[in-house]
Design a protein that fits this description.
The chain is an all-alpha fold. It contains 18 helices and three strands. It folds into three domains: 116 residues, no CATH class; 80 residues, no CATH class; 133 residues, no CATH class. Helices cover 56% and strands 3% of the residues.
Length: 367
């Protein structure tokens, strides 16, 4: 139960110890319950440091309250980046634990916790009798359950167009099931809200400690600032990726490549581009450095070229194509760098009337 805070069993057991927020606050404010708040602070700070979350087990039923207390602290602080860090770390901890569990336990937890009915495809011998394409998978999952979580994953392998679907079921591998479970848990954290009452001074001190660490983290991971003049020349797709990155959101692999290659092509250094991604909850400096330098060094130093508008649209990264925003220049260009060159010239000349496009440029796209 300590490993899976979202499970039906854990929620029931937790409510027996503290049936509401006020009782939770009373328990962690008592001398004998202070350890719960101390461990909750450690749990939150672990998520900030991207270190492993350890399930504390002292054989006391109040151990179940550590996760709840950690969530309480984050909700009271009210910083979305901190919540993103917490959701990322908690989901990774769950994913790691799932690999050690028996299949029957995992399938039962899916059913009781999320209402997911996952069916096993059987033993190796049983799978040998199935069509060849099913032999690569371990389970089958109802389509509507799969779609609760999978669209939030960035890899192309999760897109439904790349999956087998038969009779309303999607075949999945064991590792994919673990990812879906941990992804659902992450969703639950990000979409949840706790109405926090007035807190006693002991808890306020814990919050101050976390806020101090958070300020340091934000300062260390502050993204490189791009001048307003430069941002104004960004195409809508790059603008969206840039905004999401500096807000601490995890970008898809395609988005990170497009943003990094674009910024490198317009003259930013490797370190400056690296700085744009520092706010991401899953930022690992060594890996990010390798990826940025790889993008910058292709073909004898010329670097990779950003993907075209068509490719960006195919990855669902074009807000104009998706109808979220509009920009008349997008109809006349087929590459983000072409947009940037034209818009940067307009900005330098102070041109705000874009009606000249129709007379001087050939229309190349229709949205």
């Amino acid at each position: 139960m300590l490993r899976y805070p979202f499970s039906k069993e854990t929620r029931r057991a937790t409510q027996k110890v503290a049936r509401d927020i006020q009782i939770l606050i009373n328990i962690v404010s008592e001398a004998s319950g202070v350890y719960v708040m101390d461990e909750a602070v450690v749990r939150v700070l672990s998520s900030l440091d991207q270190s492993e979350i350890i399930a504390v087990n002292t054989n006391d039923e109040r151990d179940l309250l550590i996760y709840s207390a950690a969530r309480l602290l984050v909700e009271e602080i009210g910083d979305q980046r901190l919540k993103e860090y917490q959701a990322e770390a908690e989901s990774k901890a769950v994913n790691k634990h799932l690999g050690k569990e028996k299949e029957e336990f995992v399938l039962d937890m899916c059913l009781t916790s999320f209402g997911w009915k996952i069916e096993s495809l059987g033993t190796v011998r049983e799978k040998a009798k199935l069509p060849d394409y099913l032999g690569l998978f371990d389970f089958k999952m109802q389509l509507q359950d799969f779609l609760e979580v999978a669209p939030g994953f960035h890899d192309n392998a999760w897109k439904l167009v790349h999956r087998y679907v038969e009779d309303g079921f999607v075949p999945i591998r064991k590792s994919e099931l673990y990812r879906l479970i941990s992804g659902k848990f992450k969703q639950l954290i990000l979409n949840s809200h706790i109405d926090v009452p007035k807190l006693p001074s002991k808890i306020s001190e814990a919050i101050q400690r976390i806020e101090s660490e958070l300020r340091g983290k934000i300062k260390r991971t502050a993204p490189i600032e791009i001048t307003e003049k430069t941002v104004n020349a960004f195409p809508p797709c790059i603008q969206q990726m840039h905004n999401d990155s500096i807000k601490g959101k995890n970008l898809s692999h395609e988005a990170r490549f497009a943003l990094a290659s674009f910024l490198l092509k317009i003259g930013m250094t490797d370190d400056e581009v690296l700085g744009i991604f520092k706010a991401a909850p899953d930022f690992v400096r060594g890996l990010a450095e390798y990826q940025v330098r790889h993008i910058a060094s292709k073909s004898g130093g010329e670097g990779y070229t950003p993907p075209s508008c068509r490719k960006i649209q195919g990855s669902s990264l074009c807000p104009v194509y998706l109808g979220a925003v509009s920009d008349p220049l997008c109809e006349f260009i087929v590459h983000p760098l072409s947009f940037y060159q034209t818009r940067a010239w307009e900005v330098s000349k102070g041109i705000e009337n874009h009606s000249w496009y129709a007379g001087k440029m050939q229309r190349k796209q229709s949205f």
